[in-house]
Specification:
Residues 141-206 form the WYL domain. The protein is of the alpha+beta class and 330 residues long. The protein has helices at 15-29, 35-51, 56-63, 67-80, 139-151, 226-229, 239-242, 257-266, 285-291, 298-307; strands spanning 154-159, 168-180, 183-190, 195-200, 209-211, 244-251, 270-271, 274-275, 277-281, 314-318.
Length: 330
């Protein structure tokens, strides 16, 4: 059963978020914040978004500041985003984001996962840089999905896919976020397909809304939506996501010995105990192969063996075997 009838594209006003962001931007331009303080405020928001917690010690150790200064920064952030933090509890030794937390300082252009500031490449007459296509992100959707994962909530949203480019209503239970090359995916149990799937966060066309099973209904019957029958709990765990697989990266064995040696050097494949090995969750292996130009299908593998080995310089095998990674069936 589809859930389109329950979901309407979100047209709700973002006035509060926009006004707060504009306020912070205006204050920054007016010199209300020093640059170091602005970085600390962004760091506070990044911790709330990704780690779901914040302590004064984090600020002190990261920026080398005193406890009073760290507390002052947290209070300033609370003024900029009054709905971002739960009331502090003595029994919980850290600040927590509210379930409806949304970033107001971080931009969608830079989700600030691994760094609080990125530097532009230097401009020099004797160098150039190949531009990369940037995939669309939606920071508000990301924040809602992370909150749903933390609180184990199911959500409803309109999501576009290649098979439904205009988008359709889906009911999902998000379980993990994965950053693949330049795009964010959410791993979720899809109540329409009754299976775990990956969805591009940039293709969410509405803001996810939390949905809960109806209360007071003892027996929905076999014709009821699966979400209601299962009381909002997926009937099985994501076994594939929990499965960790080790891959060994080797130069294409169909290159000459000298060419293979060159590839080992190019890609730094050689380590102290042999060739390079990596451990990945099973559903991520396909993305890894595609993004690193390693054969990801039987057709690509045959082409790399018989037609043009130079175009596929690196192969991936399950460790201690000659089984190509694409045969794992991700």
């Amino acid at each position: 059963m589809q859930y389109s009838q329950y979901i309407k594209p979100a047209i709700a006003s973002d006035t509060q978020t926009i006004s707060v962001t504009d306020l912070a931007s205006k204050r920054l331009k007016a010199g209300a914040f020093s640059h170091p303080q602005w970085l600390r405020l962004c760091y506070i928001e990044r911790q709330l978004l990704w780690e779901r917690r914040l302590t004064t010690t984090m600020l002190m150790e990261t920026f080398g500041i005193s406890r009073p200064q760290a507390q002052k920064d947290i209070k300033l952030y609370q003024q900029l985003a009054p709905k971002a933090l739960k009331p502090y509890q003595l029994s919980i030794p850290y600040h927590q984001p509210t379930e409806s937390f949304e970033p107001v300082l971080l931009s969608e252009a830079d989700l600030q996962w691994q760094a609080i500031e990125e530097y532009a490449p230097p401009i020099a007459a004797h160098t150039t840089e190949m531009p990369m296509l940037i995939r669309r992100h939606n920071l508000r959707v990301l924040a809602r999905l992370l909150s749903a994962i933390e609180h184990q909530r199911s959500i409803e949203a309109v999501v576009a896919t290649m098979s439904s480019p205009k988008g359709r209503g889906r009911r999902l239970m998000p379980t993990a976020i994965a950053f693949v090359n330049n795009r964010y995916h959410v791993r979720a149990f899809c109540w329409d397909n009754m299976a775990y799937r990956d969805f591009l966060i940039g293709r969410f066309k509405s803001t996810p809304k939390v949905v809960k099973p109806s209360k007071g209904v003892k027996d929905w019957g076999d014709n009821a939506p699966a979400f209601e029958r299962c009381r909002g709990v997926p009937p099985e765990s994501d076994a594939e996501w929990e499965q960790m697989i080790e891959l060994e990266l080797r130069p294409n064995p169909h290159l000459s010995q000298d060419q293979q040696a060159l590839i080992v050097t190019d890609y730094e494949l050689e380590h102290d105990r042999g060739l390079k090995r990596i451990v990945l969750r099973k559903p991520l292996i396909g993305y890894f192969l595609v993004d690193n130009r390693i054969p990801a299908s039987e057709a690509e593998y045959k082409f790399a063996v018989h037609e043009n080995p130079k175009a596929w310089p690196v192969f991936a095998f399950t460790t201690d075997s000659n089984r190509p990674a694409h045969k794992l069936g991700f």
